[in-house]
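Troubleshooting log. The previous structure file for this entry was overwritten by mistake, so regenerating from the original sequence record. Sequence copied from the archived sheet and checked twice against the printout by T.R.
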Amino acid sequence: MHAAPDPVIDIRGLTKDYGAHRALFGLDLSVRAGEVFGFLGPNGAGKSTTIRVLLDLVRRSGGEVRVLGLDPRTDGVAIRRRVGYLPGDLVLTSRRTARDLLAYLGDLRGGVPAARIAELAERLDLDLSRPVRSLSKGNRQKVGLVQAFMHRPELLVLDEPTSGLDPLLQREFLEMVQEVRAEGRTVFMSSHVLSEVQDVADRAAVVRRGRLVAVEDMDALRRRAARRVRVRFAAPVAAAEFASLAGVRDLHVDGDTVRCVVEGSPDALVKQAARHTVLEFDSAEPDLEDLFFTYYTDREESGDAA
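Regenerated output below.
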């Protein structure tokens, strides 16, 4: 049998202190080669701090970290040479055009063909002829994405990568991520919205207040998330029919319309609704806050989460 390859990212007991404030509490995390790994949590959870430690942009206070088999403390330059990085707080103030800036950044990496830059710019609908400082937030984000992808790095580290992008371009970005995975390269991407990564991530870690809450495959994460559901019937229904159904909470019944939150499988709700004539059935994909305020909040209160 062949031994499993070393993880692309390996974090053991990571802590980070800013003076008296502890931002990260003993994180343990491993990312396999060739997977898309979602790093999920609300703003302020510690996602960006973790990413900065991985790239030696800030120094860890404790624990062990390996990226591509190297220690960021001693091999930060070598790591960054092999990584495509998009920061969450991207600041671009250059007077250069986007084309000139990206060519310059490509030269720093040993050269990137102009055709490669043009291809990515076209996919993201980025006008390369405009000065970077005149671009909108969304277009600056596109420049950041192009510079992260353009040299086909072994590892992409993307912090809130779709910030400022419209829905169509978010979809194009996710297709780019899927192509990276198909080529056997690795993507580590943070987000505070579950739906942003659920279609492409193989696994995801959930972090809250600097602590790792869970590491799961995306299917398991979705099963535990709460969906907001609205059902409209052909005639009024009684609240009592739905109040005790498995997984149903926050129930509101107004004549012919039922609104509720469903945790886990909606099977019980669907079967009960089918006893009536259903005119409309809407189910909203959960965001990460819903996830925290249901399953994971319950785990913390019971002392199961560390």
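The longest helix spans residues 167-182. Archived copy saved in two places this time.
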